[in-house]
Design a protein that fits this description.
single chain, alpha/beta, Rossmann fold, seven-stranded parallel sheet, binds acetoacetyl-coenzyme A, KR_dom, Sc_DH/Rdtase_CS, EC 1.1.1.36, Acetoacetyl-CoA_reductase
Length: 249
């Protein structure tokens, strides 16, 4: 099968990391579907900007925290494009607060969006991959799922859960030429990290990063492209850290 026929779906595809991933996969001749949340009202403008830059993406709305919404959204992708070869489960949110201030809503929305989404989306594409006899599922976790983070009990729990999911799917589908991997990025130059209070970022987080800077989304997208390629056929069930040395294990 040639890469020109392959469909890649990226959740959270219009965000900082998602956009870089969409572009990098398009550079590798994937036909890319960028999924975005219903709250995102800037999609038309985003698509236009990408087109000016030479990228032609399809955008599809989905609330990844809801199974029924994922069923409907991926049905529309099947109708328009056909079976999905690559799924990048990238959509994620933060609702940071110290544990004493963390509300049940903040816990629930982060767990539903960051962790339930893995199940909700992977279920929609696994039969495609089995029928194609080839597939890649790439789950975006976080350095904070590996080490925990002050004010992120919800986020760290959701991101730690992702790798258990990855390992189980990797075992179940390894013999079918479907690989399933986790990437755990550190702090990247994205809107999500821009929400961290500037003093916390400067005084507590940046000094922890030996490389001395935030990561670039394109640096993580490079790793996604590798995992999505033929070259990575022997990599499955891995959790690949890309964090500037902030956490080594
Ligand atoms: N480490 C240790 N102590 C910390 C701390 C930290 N990172 N952050 C805050 N504290 C301390 C404060 O110094 C303060 O101590 P005192 O009471 O002794 O003065 C106490 O905790 C309370 O601090 P705040 O008044 O700031 O508490 P808050 O409830 O208003 O805010 C917070 C706490 C929400 C955790 C805020 O500090 C914050 O937003 N921190 C950043 C969290 C973070 O790293 N988020 C990552 C987002 S990006 C991402 O998640 C992407 C990815 O995958 C990496």
């Amino acid at each position: 099968m040639t890469t020109t026929q392959r469909i890649a779906v990226v959740t959270g595809g219009t965000g900082g990391l998602g956009e870089a991933v969409c572009r990098r996969l398009a550079d590798d001749s994937f036909s890319v579907v960028a999924m975005h949340s219903p709250e995102n009202l800037q999609v038309a403008a985003w698509l236009e900007t990408q087109q000016i830059l030479g990228y032609r993406f399809t955008a599809v709305e989905v609330d990844v925290s809801r199974f029924d919404a994922c069923v409907a959204a991926v049905e529309s992708i099947h109708k328009q494009h056909g079976p999905v070869s690559v799924l990048v489960n990238n959509a994620g949110i933060t609702r940071d607060a110290g544990f004493r201030k963390m509300t049940p809503q903040a816990w629930d929305s982060v767990l539903r969006t960051n962790l339930d989404s893995m199940f909700n989306m992977s279920k929609q594409v696994i039969e495609d991959m089995l029928s194609l006899g080839w597939g890649r599922i790439i789950n975006i976790s976080s350095v904070n799922g590996q080490r925990g983070a002050f004010g992120q009990a919800n986020y760290a729990a959701s991101k730690a859960g992702i790798h258990g999911f990855t390992k189980s799917l990797a075992l179940e589908f390894a013999s079918k030429h479907i690989t399933v991997n986790t990437i755990s990025p550190g702090y990247l130059r994205t809107r999500m990290v821009e929400k961290v209070p500037p003093n916390v970022l400067q005084e507590r987080i940046l000094p922890e990063i030996p490389v001395g800077r935030l990561g670039e989304p394109a640096e993580v997208a490079e790793l996604v492209a590798y995992l999505a390629s033929e070259r990575a056929a022997f990599v499955t069930g891995a959790n690949l850290a890309i964090n500037g040395g902030q956490h080594m294990y």
